[in-house]
Amino acid sequence: MKRIITFGTFDVFHVGHVNILERAASLGDYLIVGVSSDNLNFSKKGRYPIYSQGERCKIISSLRFVNEVFIENSLELKKEYITQNNADVLVMGDDWLGRFDWVSDVCEVIYLPRTPSVSTTEIIEVVKALK
Ligand code: C2G
Fold it and tell me: Ligand 1 — pocket residues by CB below 6 A?
């Protein structure tokens, strides 16, 4: 049984998120998703997510191709998360290309192409501009 792990914030859930999770799941038999905590998101992006970590976890858990969800508190703990979850493959979008190669001694690392023309940041900008 091949176990896949992936990570992300998945704020203001959109079709790009569905696509990467669906493709990640199709590479194995069991998909585990590390959802960035609100504090980790603040440290990465300088703002808190629109949806809380509890809401984001609930949304991700409800997807039929996701088997397990946990909160990711630190980017530096990636290797620990991978080994604790017995993951065989780490999947990330190619906006992270090369940046998780340092875990390739504990699992295979695959970067998948991002879905073009959709992002949480852009959705927030569009909504803000609505009058
Ligand atoms: N994604 C995608 N296509 C988009 C937007 C996002 O394939 N149009 C993918 C990203 O490449 C990522 C996943 O969806 O693999 C989650 O994206 P984010 O929520 O932006 O995740 P991020 O904040 O980059 O967190 O430990 C790693 C981090 O937690 C990743």
Answer: 7-11, 16-17, 20, 36, 72, 75, 92-93, 95, 114-115, 118-119
